Every structure is written in structure tokens, then in C-alpha cells.
Amino acid sequence: xxxxxxxxxxxxxxxxxxxxxxxxxxxxxxxxxxxxxxxxxxxxxxxxxxxxxxxxxxxxxxxxxxxxxxxxxxxxxxxxxxxxxxxxxxxxxxxxxxxxxxxxxxxxxxxxxxxxxxxxxxxxxxxxxxxxxxxxxxxxxxxxxxxxxxxxxx
Length: 154
Fold this sequence. Notes:
Elements: E1 9-10, H1 21-24, E2 29-30, E3 33-36, E4 39-42, H2 48-67, H3 73-92, H4 99-114, H5 121-125, H6 138-146
Parallel strand pairs: 1-2
Antiparallel strand pairs: 3-4
Helix pairs in contact: 2-3, 2-4, 3-4
């Protein structure tokens, strides 16, 4: 197998132990912090909550931009599915967002979708064929996205 050493950085995570010589000899750069699609990740995950808040800031900015168009409910659902979930998905599909962080981000999206309407969670996240809006509950959505990684782990 051929490795691309110049573009790959190793980030030890968890219990940090001395890196074995055979790993060091592969020639990869080893860092304590990396940036992945605009998010800075440290090996102790100490800045992770700050990065979740940054994602929330991006969602807030996008919702402000689209709020000026006075979109219909189907329009807001389309914006949420096209632009808002992707802000979380590009990192949340492989990083460990907990239920509290998922609820924070998911509630931001639900608030945008519902607008001035009072929509129950059951209806918000219910199946369209049963009268729901078909939105994704964030924690379950991200857990399902991780299933896409499964074939590559074998």
C-alpha cells in the first residue's frame, strides 16, 4: 500500500502514549492539533464544545440569511435539509457529538423550520406519510451517518 506522507497528519487521541518507532518511521507528521474542514481538533478534545458553538454560529448565520425571504414551511424544510443539516453532518458523522450538543444544534434547525408556527416534536420529526414534516432528529441522524463508515472499518 502506498501512503501519501506529505498530506497526512496523525493525531493521537485518547490515552497518549509514546508513539511506536515503526509508526514514526512511516514519515507522517504527528500533531497535537489539526484542522478538519474549518474545525480545530485537539488530541484531548478540550476545544470540542467551542467548535460545536461555531457550527451553531454557522447555522444561525444561514438562518438569518434565509429569514429575509419569508419562505413557506416547505421552503424552510428544503433550506434545512440542503444547508443546515450539512453544517453538522460534515463533522458530526465521524466526531462524537453527545445528545446535549445534538439537541442544541437540532433545536436551532427546528426553530428555523417552525418559524412562527407551533409544531410539536412528534410532528416535526414524524414521517411525511403519517402527517409529519420528515425532519431528522439530530442524534439519530448523525448515528445513522456513521453507519456509512462501517464498510471501511473492516
